[in-house]
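WARN retry 2 of 3 for item q-0093 after timeout on previous attempt; input resubmitted unchanged.
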Amino acid sequence: MYAERQESPVSDVRVIISREPDREERVVTTGTTAADLFPGDRAVIAARVGGELRDLAYVLSDGDEVEPVAIDSADGLSILRHSTAHIMAQAVQEIFPEAKLGIGPPIKDGFYYDFDVEKPFTPEDLKAIEKKMTEIIKRGQKFSRRVVTDEAAREELAGEPYKLELIGLKGGASSDDGADVEVGGSELTIYDNLDPKSGDLCWRDLCRGPHLPSTRIPAFKLMRNAAAYWRGSEKNPMLQRIYGTAWATKDDLKAHLDFLEEAAKRDHRKLGAELDLFSIPEQIGSGLAVFHPRGGVMRRAMEDYSRKRHEEANYEFVYTPHATKGTLFETSGHLDWYADGMYPPMQLDEGVDYYLKPMNCPMHNLIFDARGRSYRELPLRLFEFGTVYRYEKSGVVHGLTRARGFTQDDAHIYCTREQMAEELDSLLTFVLELLRDYGLNDFYLELSTKDPEKFVGSDEVWEEATEVLRQAAEKQGLPLTPDPGGAAFYGPKISVQARDAIGRTWQMSTIQLDFNLPERFDLEYTAADGSRQRPVMIHRALFGSIERFFAVLLEHYAGAMPPWLSPVQAVGIPIGDGHVDYLKEFAAEAKAKGLRVEVDSSNDRMQKKIRNHQKLKTPFMVIVGDEDMAAGTVSFRYRNGLQKNGIPRDEALAEIADAVERRIQV
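OK item q-0093 returned
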């Protein structure tokens, strides 16, 4: 962060005020702050000066370029939320004086703060903390930045053991655990909360900043509490974390809470239990799901359609084992770069290490290398539904979307340098078309480039691969967002980001261009001139994983799957026992056409059967009474409650079959 400024010896300073698309040069007196440039504009809560975020109290220097930061901008919301985290921590220590402070960074749509307290917070505690925060906000305390030396900070925060640890990280803190919001700059700073009238110190915290001018937060709410290891490591003490959210207006807060309510209704874990699709038994372990028969039908439908499309696109199917000797991952580099994400080795065969595979690509390389390859075979597209195992930390495991065991729809394409651009273009088109077939239509692309601290291969190869990927992405005509440093160690990648029905973004397919693993595995093919050449390797997971894609679709459709993906596409509901056999005949005709139709012949009354199948979100309910039997017809009750009567049986079957064939929603 920036250092304290000495008063300039000149009487005037020139600054540039940048408000897109305008730039204005202005001469101001020495001592002018960023706040003085935007008098009366309450929406401006900070400034970006020379590319760095600053408090409004920042004193300007000659030549500074200043851009206002509005409270409802991305930067403004982060500052607002981090400021709210400070207010929450102050409230906690006013109510629980023994509480020790951890870290309180802003996160997507909110913030959290970790505390070391004697016992976990209760819902009543959160209500009391929220009430105390409201009191602090009404006081309008001032956030005041103060630069301190390491020694002074240690003396001042002697009673805060976690802050003392952070002081030792100055300048080298990680964004992964939020430590950079406290000591991520080149100097240490403390933010004091000062009484607006007397200037007395009310509270303080080690922090990099910037912050709002005062504690006047427009709208906030505490959401929940959870246990969390200090700095995310299971080797560290368990702390208590409180999550909250803060917004620029009360209307924005309400909209966010409404969104969360809708998202909770769509939570795939909740729907998975309600619709009897899958479970994650404690006896098996966190992050390891089992699919029930209904979920198995839905998953098989997803996989079968994907297989069909891959066959049409000339992919060849392969199968590989779940475990392998560790030497394979030494060759690939995973043990150098990915060991933390792998399960510990198993000692077999007189001390030989075996690992559950976290990736399929090394084994696919062995398939390519099992015999000599000719340029006539390229591009060679190998495809596998391959189950992999990754040791995710318990704090990040989340239902099917972040699991420890999952099945990737994994493909690796081997091609020549000359085929590379065309293959990437057709591959990305194939990926987007297939995702659209499953009902996702709102996309943008993300280009992840080299992490300068974590890569193999030469800079020249990375530059070439990145540019080829960029050109393939731009051909799709979709927005392309940069992701600096986000690539895997072996090559850059394009990620397809899809928005669901309520606007959430999910990372779907990834396409990675790799010049390095073919080198490490010494892969070769015979070129047209008889020379031995190195293939280019393209890694591609279309769904990411079957489990995660299953969860995304479940939430996208709120469990009301289109008929082609529904576990049961239609259910026969007899008005009386005498109508059961008629419906069984109808179901048999449907099954002969490849449709999934059942008959509910339980003892429940008709209205209860209808309610039961509404809860199961069955697309078609086929109701039959005396009139239908006499006329050779059925009646449809649709998922939205509408009903259509007197449909001839063949027309009813055709309507169900048409919805399935065209993959439409009903």
